[in-house]
Amino acid sequence: MLYGRINKKEAIDIRIAICDDEPITLNLVRNLIYDEMKNNELEFEDISVYETGRSLLEEYSKLPFDVIFLDIRIPDINGFEIAERLRDISSKTFIIFITTESGLVFNAFDFQPFHFIRKLPSDQLEMQLKSVVKKLSRHIRQNDSLILDLPYNEKTSVCVRDILYISSEKNYLNYHLNDSQIRVRGKISETEDKFAVYDFVRIHNRIIVNMKNISVIDYPNYEIKLKNGEIMNIGRIYKKELHEKYTLYLRTLR
Predict the structure, then answer these.
(1) Would you state the pLDDT for residue 2?
(2) Which pLDDT does position 178 carry in this prediction?
(3) What are the tens digits of pLDDT across the range 150-175?
(4) Model pTM?
(5) Largest CA-CA distance found in the chain, in angstroms, rounded
(6) β-pair partners for 149
(7) Handedness of CA 85, 91, 97, 102 (dihedral sign)
(8) Closest residue by Cα to residue 227 from 161, 164, 159, 143
(9) Facing residues of 85 across strands?
């Protein structure tokens, strides 16, 4: 078991690209994404725009983007072929297809798209982008890393998505990972507030859980089953709040 305290969160700017051969759509999408990324308080580099698939692939081969909004119908190389080449380089990029033809959606699943956006009038397009960026922000934040100061001036980092839950024990907090624990000084109430942005929820007076790692909630029996198979009890006073927050969480992922 490691001992330490949370020092800071690594700040990593998200690299975003848009590829569309229609300049009007390209600029509209760029401006909308820019506003929504700011609204969701996500750190990102300036959004790169490309009107051809070749120019996007050339830049991507040098340094992959984290998020790509990709038109399916591009004259030089179609979006599916671009996506296939992107996946040959990296499987971690979030690909959001932009299309006017909903019938093409089923052909895109081989490329593990994060979402689809239909080309609609600007007001409807804005609503779609708001929903997608909000959903995207939840996934991106789960990739944040926490830096821990350990004894003897050593440091380690923990990815948020690897934290199953956090439990309190007197003046200490135990961060439960899949294969280890990290012990830090802290209070569960303060930690609950800080981790709300990462979709952690209180299930007990001494436990907050990463909703990403919840498998099943058995409300009648006041139990939660995590994805690693571990079963935990729900405190009766936290059942209602858990239900509300987890229901909202699931809705934002659709």
Answers:
(1) 46
(2) 86
(3) 667 778 788 898 999 999 998 888 99
(4) 0.71
(5) 63
(6) 5, 155
(7) positive
(8) 164
(9) none
Determine the pLDDT at residue 5.
Answer: 46
What six digits make up the tokens of 149? 């100061």
Structure tokens at 86: 């992107």
Report the distance separating Cα 242 and Cα 220, nearest Å: 13
From the list 174, 235, 175, 173, the residue with the least C-alpha distance to 204 is 235
Q: How far is CA 198 from CA 90, 99, 159, in A?
A: 25, 31, 11
Both tokens of 191, joined, read 């930690």
Which helix or strand (DSSP H or E) is residue 141 part of?
A: helix 122-141
Long-range contacts of the stretch 74-83 (C-beta < 8 A, 24+) = 74/19, 74/20, 74/21, 75/21, 76/52, 77/52, 77/53, 78/53, 79/19, 79/53, 79/108, 80/107, 80/108, 80/111, 81/53, 82/19, 82/53, 82/56, 82/57, 83/108, 83/111, 83/113
Query: Is a pLDDT exceeding 80 seen at residue 106?
Result: no
CA distance 141 to 136: 9
Q: What is the pLDDT of residues 180-229, one digit of tens each?
A: 998 887 889 988 988 888 999 999 999 999 999 999 999 999 999 999 99
Alpha-carbon dihedral of residues 177, 179, 181, 182, nearest 10 degrees? -80
Of 185, 209, 184, the closest CA to residue 196 belongs to 209
